[in-house]
Amino acid sequence: TVYELDWPMGAYDMAAQKQKYTAYLDKFKQLNMNAVFVQVKGMGDAFYNSPYEPWSVAIKGAGTRGQDPGYDVLKFMLDETHARGLEFHAWINPFRIATRASNATPYPALHPSIQPGWVVSHEKWQLYNPAIPEARQRLADIVKDIITKYDIDGIHMDDYFYPDPSSAGVMVSDATDYATYGAGYATIQDFRRGNVDKAIKGVYDVIVANKPGVVFSISPTSNFDYNKNTLYADIVKWATEGWMDVVIPQIYQHSDFGTRLNNWDMFNNKPYLMVGHAIYTDLRPTPTQLANELNLIKSKKAAVGSLFYSAKYLNTETDLVAKIAEMYTSPAVIPFLGRAVAPDPAAPQNVRIEGNTLKWSASGNVRSVVYFTTDMKSEAKILTITGSTQADAAATGFYSVSTLNADNKESAASKAIKK
User: Fold this and answer.
1) Which long-range contacts (CB under 8 A, 24 or more apart) does 79-84 make?
2) Nearest alpha-carbon partner for 210 in 339, 298, 82, 119
3) DSSP letter string over 278-334?
4) What is the per-residue pLDDT for 63?
5) Fewest CB atoms within 10 Å of the CB: 9, 95, 131, 255?
6) Facing residues of 35 across strands?
7) How far apart are CA 336 and CA 22, in angstroms?
């Protein structure tokens, strides 16, 4: 949503915005995708009624920052996403407030609740200052506000922490911050990493304390050194400390994709590993490269999924979309990723075939997963993930059913039944 890259793309009428969003969801569903990550706080703003940040300028167009659009944008997106059986992960930028081309252009006025002393304005970037304890607390408070108001499935951050000087222009010195808050840190670089560490832990702690079923994911660049020494994001430490549930490196480099994937294949599902793929024009793979990369991921026991950036290219990069459709021929279960909140799912009972219909009994707040294979030697594929207790069984082969709870914990599968 930053710069309206995917949404609303110039559509400032409520009906047009809704249609554009649901068209995306229908496309995702058609491609057997199972989750959407939506940027709801990209520029010190909000796509919901926030006591901390103004309504995003993207919703109503240039010059309208802070203008109520007349409907609950996030609730609409969330409800439509869940109605299609997809998960909704709220993507936030932790620190960025605004960007500009040069210091010839003033930054927008700050939200009335923001103390100017919490903010640092570099030449091209304005952000909450990670060194200020109150600014870090504000981030935790924003996350608490989102997860307690809305039934989202996850909180997500990408790779913006301290700004890269190559994009932020002339940087404001943080020597005074270091002198004020840096006791105990041997270097200013350690101090910066410590500030981001505290911010990440604060978000993780507020999730666990208030809505532990929410999954916390972070999508860093695929370069460990760049993350640690330019963005001051110590991903390995966060993994070691258990402060994130899923790590999603942006492995956009096709010539050494396998090497980089191997480098990230280290965490033994603490956190779980997914991979971010660029499908946009500048960095997109060829269809063959994408197929090879997805197959490499599938071969890695520790890798449990892929994410594609960004949505609009699913409408334009037709050759890549065709390859995605070819490779994702059936729905997929999102694995259990976070903290157990719901009761464990009970296995389905009384699984049977009546005519051309598979039927079973399920108990509790669960969905059911129907597996099918033509013979017992082949890998079963998922026919459907459903809230019903019956499914079509016209094809000859073997059927099995499991159940999923709200945490995506899956029960044991039923004994296969032959049709």
Assistant:
1) 80/18, 80/21, 80/22, 80/25, 81/25, 81/36, 82/151, 84/25, 84/26, 84/28, 84/29
2) 339
3) E-STTTPPPHHHHHHHHHHHHH-TTEEEEEEE-GGGGGT-HHHHHHHHHH--S--PP
4) 87
5) 255
6) 87
7) 26
The three-point CA angle 101-104-107 to 5° equals 70
Tokens of 334: 């999102």
Which of these, 68, 14, 4, 71, lies nearest to 42 by C-alpha position?
4
Per-residue confidence (pLDDT) for residue 301, from 0 to 100:
87
d(CA 371, CA 368): 10
| SS3 at position 404 | strand
Query: How is 9-55 classified by DSSP, letter by letter?
Result: TT--SHHHHHHHHHHHHHHHHHTT--EEEEEEESSS-BSS--SSSPB
Low-confidence spans in the chain with pLDDT less than 50: none
Question: Is the separation of the CB atoms in 144 and 206 below 8 Å?
Answer: yes
Write out pLDDT tens, residues 120-134.
999 999 999 999 999
Taking the model in full, what pTM does it have?
A: 0.97
What is the edge-to-edge ordering of all strands in the sheet holding 246-247?
Answer: 35-41, 87-92, 154-157, 215-218, 246-247, 272-278, 303-309
What pLDDT, in 10s, does the model give residues 186-209?
Answer: 999 999 999 999 999 999 999 999
Per DSSP, what are the bridge partners of residue 384?
A: 370
Q: Are the C-beta atoms of 226 and 263 separated by less than 8 Å? A: no
Chain position carrying tokens 């997963």 = 369
pLDDT computed for residue 269 by the predictor: 87
Q: Is 368 helix (H, G, I), strand (E, B) or coil?
A: strand
pLDDT of residue 268: 84
Please provide residue 124's backbone torsions phi and psi, each rounded to the nearest 5 degrees.
-120, -5
55 phi, psi to nearest 5 deg: -55, 140
Ranges of beta strands (E only) in 223-265 are: 246-247
How much is the pLDDT for 302? 86
Cβ–Cβ < 8 Å for 267, 247: yes
Confidence (pLDDT) at 246: 98
CA angle 25, 27, 31 (to 5 degrees): 115
Burial 245-269 (b: 16+ CB within 10 A, else e): bbbbbbbbebeebeebbeebeebee
- Supply the pLDDT for residue 114: 92
Q: How far apart are CA 321 and CA 323, in angstroms?
A: 5
